């Protein structure tokens, strides 16, 4: 099997490719984000231990089914990285998680209480068709019990996946839908047919099957930390960028 490492592009070729693909800005921002995270973690006295890195590396090997040392070495070679590169990646990942928890873990409950509506979920079924008249006819047929919502979705929806799942969209948050549509859909009684409502996709009929009360689960807890951390990181990045530009201009 040919070894890609033997023909890997030169650094200047990689940079030129990133420029051509308009990816250099995104990569540069990610590098600067890492610098901000590392600097802030150092200032806060946050460290990652060798044991933590080893535990994460073992988890990665299990996920990749790298049972033997030779399997791991072969995988690293295929990724064009060394064991040290992998360790650095794991270190940065763990540092980011530990810093985000350090900064925002105590703010989660307050944020959840202030934004509780954003975490309410609804089990949604939907039918989308191309023509208003057809949507209206389907609505009346469902109302008159000539056809069920699920059958109508299976026969008429323009989306193959929804046809297969009989209109099932899954659990959705309020913010998952356009605000104007969400205000109509989520204020209707459970099981009531809603629509037709027009969007760029076509004409929609909705049915809310279940309301799921907002609950601060471990997953929601972590998602709030991640959101607050992203906002903080973007603010720090913009502050750093502004100061750098000001220094250059002076």
Automatic annotation (TrEMBL):
The protein's Enzyme Commission number = 5.2.1.8
Keywords, sorted A to Z: Isomerase, Rotamase, Signal
Q: Which GO terms describe its molecular function?
A: isomerase activity
Keyword Signal belongs to the record: yes
Q: Which domain of life is it from?
A: Bacteria
What this protein catalyses is: [protein]-peptidylproline (omega=180) = [protein]-peptidylproline (omega=0)
Q: What is the uppermost EC class here?
A: isomerase
Which residue intervals define the domain PpiC in the entry?
A: 119-210
Q: Which InterPro entries match?
A: PPIase_dom_sf, PPIase_PpiC, PrsA_foldase
- Listed Pfam families: Rotamase (PF00639)
Matching Gene3D superfamilies: 3.10.50.40, Porin chaperone SurA, peptide-binding domain
Q: What is this protein called?
A: peptidylprolyl isomerase
Q: Which organism is it from?
A: Floridaenema fluviatile BLCC-F154
